[in-house]
Amino acid sequence: MKLALRIAYDGTAFYGFQRQPDVRTVEGELIRVLKKLKIVESPEENDFKGASRTDRGVSAFFNVVSFIPSERADLARPEVLNHHLRDVWVLGVSEVPEEFHPRFWARSKTYRYYLVNEGF
């Protein structure tokens, strides 16, 4: 069984999506909670994948990650995960085919840029 999570996050709280040593990232926060709840052992062992990476400060509303759960798949529910996450919200969870990869199964991507004029 493989699960996909639809997530949203406030990018101002992170140094981007992709995990990096010694800084807070979206992927790092998700993996921290999934490991804490024993839903995954490690990103490599559980085939953790993300649909799209974002840079520092960039927020997302409809990003997707997938993984093969370990022993506690029953805890991979929005209400449980959201209780343990900060600045990341799980909007939904779905069982997906084993060959599912969120980056390649996406039908489309939409980017919106908001530029703020701060006295320039």
Task: Explain this structure.
The structure is a single chain. This protein is of the alpha+beta class and 120 residues long. The chain has one domain: Pseudouridine synthase I, catalytic domain, N-terminal subdomain (Alpha-Beta Plaits). Helices cover 18% and strands 22% of the residues. The chain is built from three helices and four strands. The chain has helices spanning 26-36, 78-84, 102-105, and strands at residues 2-9, 49-50, 60-67, 88-96. It has a four-stranded antiparallel sheet with strand order 2-3-1-4. The longest helix is centred in the N-terminal third of the chain and has 11 residues, at 26-36. It is globular, with a radius of gyration of 15 Å.
CATH architecture classification name: 2-Layer Sandwich
The best one-word shape is globular
Unreliable spans are: none
CATH C-level: Alpha Beta
Q: Which homologous superfamily in CATH is the superfamily?
A: Pseudouridine synthase I, catalytic domain, N-terminal subdomain
- Terminal CA distance reads 52 Å
The third-level CATH topology is Alpha-Beta Plaits
User: What is the structural class?
Assistant: alpha+beta
Task: State the domain count.
Answer: 1
How much is the average pLDDT?
91
How are helices and strands ordered from N to C?
Answer: EHEEHEH
